[in-house]
Write a structure and sequence with these properties.
It is a single chain. This protein is mainly β. The chain is built from no helices and six strands.
């Protein structure tokens, strides 16, 4: 399996977060007011959370994540979300 290098990715919604990359991986910290929410009542979705977008080659893929949210207010959350191109 080929090792993916973070340098091939693109940071998205950079103004909504802080990004740090080192030899061990990447960390993303969203700023206040960001959200990834699809209202079951039908209101327009809110998707302004920071992230990384990248393509993968063919073959098996293995991701590993350590999510450490710092809960300080109601509805604070931490997530590792993977989307397909169709759901980008």
């Amino acid at each position: 399996m080929d090792q993916w290098q973070l340098k091939t990715g693109e940071f998205i919604r950079e103004r909504n977060g802080r990004f740090a990359v080192d030899g061990h991986g990447c960390s993303i910290a969203a700023v206040a007011g960001t959200d990834l929410f699809h209202d079951p009542a039908g209101a327009p979705p809110v998707d302004n959370a920071p992230g990384i977008r990248f393509g993968l080659g063919r073959g098996p893929v293995l991701f590993s994540a350590l999510v450490k949210p710092q809960f300080s207010k109601t509805f604070d959350a931490g997530t590792f979300t993977v989307r397909t191109a169709a759901g980008a």
